[in-house]
Specification:
304 residues, mainly alpha, DNA polymerase, domain 1, hpI Integrase, Chain A, three-stranded antiparallel β-sheet, 14 helices, 59% helix
Amino acid sequence: MGRDSMELMQKHATDCEIRGFCRTTVSTYKGYIRHYLENIQDPLNVSRDELRHVMRQLADKQYSASSYKGYWAAVDDFYKFLQYENITDYNPVPRFRERYLPRVINIAKSEQRQCIDLAQMRQLVGRSHNIVELTMMLLLAKTGIRRGELLDIVKKDVDLDKRTIRLQPKRKRSRDTVFFDEEMANTFRKYFTWWDDYSQSKYLFLNKYQDNKMTREMPNQIIQHHGYKLGLHNPDPEAHLDEKLSCHCFRHFFTTQLYEAGMSPEHIKYLRGDSLTREAWQIYLHIDSENVRKEYVRCIPRLL
């Protein structure tokens, strides 16, 4: 990637920051655009063959459907920035995306993530070497929260009496409170004893220095370490998605367990904090939170 392309990428990142994009989104967009610029000759005169080459590269990396969307959204925004700056009036993304992305996304969706069963989850949680690993894996399995939501939990927002956690606001999440059961509460009590002795931060899960929150890579590293020992994770970069173990697999486990226990789809979506459509809001307005809590306690399995 030449100096000119690098400068354009940096200017676009600054533009995203000024427009209020969160730090994670700016970093993700920057990574996508860097990859794009490294695989084409000239962003102001890119050919269809070069765009198809980029798409094949993404397929080789086994991008998920959401990653495909995010990648081309980033590149499209990059070209809109160039148009705004009067650097070019050319944006190749809309027509290319319209022609290729729907089919590619359908193919990506056909490759499902691994969904581990109850016995496997109990084995996985049982392999925890310390209270930090145990609490983290148990919480992911019991609540179905996303990795970013896990890392942003502040210790004071865990209410042992009410059995609730107040999550930090996220664009993808429609409600910021999640429930947990007595088994999770007992684990939290043990964890808080350790946390009170070692923590120098407000966050629930800490980095190795105990002075800030756990790094983004660490939860998957812990899960994959134990998953590999149980034959649940293939570390080969070329391995299919259903051979890999990640935090998102715990979200699938959570959803599947509730569904198989007979919980209604509306209540499961409520607990997952899924983004709501306008029609869904009309349904959610009639959901009683306390009834959902009782159903949750009934349906969520014991893991220890």
